[in-house]
Amino acid sequence: MIDRDTAMRPFRGVGGFFAMSLDTFVLMFKPPFAWREFLIQSWFVARVSLLPTLMLSIPFTVLLVFTFNILLIEFGAADYSGTGAAYGTVTQLGPVVTVLVIAGAGATAMCADLGARTIREELDALRVMGIDPIQVLVVPRVLAATFVAVLLSSVVILVGIAGGFFFSVFVQHVTPGAFAGGMTIITGLADVVISLIKAGLFGLAAGLIACYKGISVQGGPAGVGNAVNETVVFTFVALFAINILASAVGVEATL
Amino acid sequence: MTQIVIRSRFPRVYRMLRRWSDRWVQLGVQTQFFAETLASMGEVFRRYRTELLRLIAQMGLGAGALAVIGGTVVIVGFLTLTTGALVAVQGYNQFSQVGVEALTGFASAYFNVRLIAPLTAGIGLAATIGAGATAQLGAMRINEEIDALEVMGIRSVAYLASTRVISGIIVVIPLYCVAVLMSFFAARFGTTYVYGQSTGVYDHYFNTFLSPTDLIWSFFLAVTMAVVIMLVHTYYGFTASGGPAGVGEAVGRAVRTSLVASALAVLLVSLAIYGQSGNFNLSG
User: Cβ A255–B68 below 8 Å, yes or no?
Assistant: First the structure.
């Protein structure tokens, strides 16, 4: 039989997470803002994420374009492959790939870093000195993850469309002009803006989850490992949940 | 002697070459580890059957806080549920723009099987059982438990890595069943209940275009991904270093690498399976 403490743990975790998020949002607008930490973290997240982003966005788009072109070639509408590539990349793959990398590369490193500090009781030391760890550590990290996610998603979209272009034109023999011409048929400015907003939301969620898991670590190296593992799982789950909601809203807004 | 002269004469060139060769050495060590893991699989069935069963049970249910919210099955099922619902949201709305919303059932049978379910399941696997394996092995490495195993005469690669790869392959099959069913269910539910298409139309196009061969290949894709993901994750766990933060960093690196590796594997395998023509017949 599960005792009461174990049964209540998930709820306590959710409550703690919302409490920390609320603190973060309040302290975000309260001076002094930790600019230095923000810049260092942004640079760090961008540095660890850039290469994996490029490596991940190319196979994903090529796979999408490949599957989609099979269909279009069968219909005799291969000229529209640019339309499918642009739509799929901008609305889905761009934000999703970005956050997979932000979660896999940036959030895990943040969680590991904060977790190690928690275990070494550095956060308690900060509190003793009258410094709020949320303000100096969590706020800049969450903002850095959001900021870099927005920037990276545009890179993903560009690289993805370029990859799709090369694959369609040189492997599946689509006319290059038709590919380029078809890109803007159903993908407009609104889709791009929604895609960037989505990427920002994902980055925010990933940053918050990573920081919460990091500052609530318990129990040695195995605890840090588990916290990082849970960060990855919860970020991915949150990402997919946000994605479906944001897509439904986005579709309503653009059509 | 010459080495010392070169090093002091051209320090920067030397350092660059050194970094370059270190990377190659690391790649070689990694390949060697993968080969050893795959080669010791027979050993697992001869000696470490109990450990294998324990790991299968653990991977299916998940460990720690993950078990409380339902474990690997629930997480992978939830991920594919949301991506399947995307077919309904994006597919139905885009198709209805050109007046062919009847084809949403076809989109579910085609895109879910070939693209969405394998990729999403791969992401789910990497996040749950993959990252879990790295965290466990990394903590063992930091606590010097792996060295203790070696001292006791237990083959650590076979006992820790090969067992995890095999149990990954075994666990992925029922998991992938759940994943595919969930994505079909979500697409059907979204299209028929939320957007109000008649179930008859949806089912007709869905059943017409659902190809059993594609489904079997899709399972093959999932198993390929499971092997790649488990190999990458056990390697990074096995070679973790640098205290508690090192374990976390190893998990991050492993997730990054395995996402890229499994996406590439899916791409290459699907190109090999479906070929350039796509192996797809609209007219039946």
Answer: no
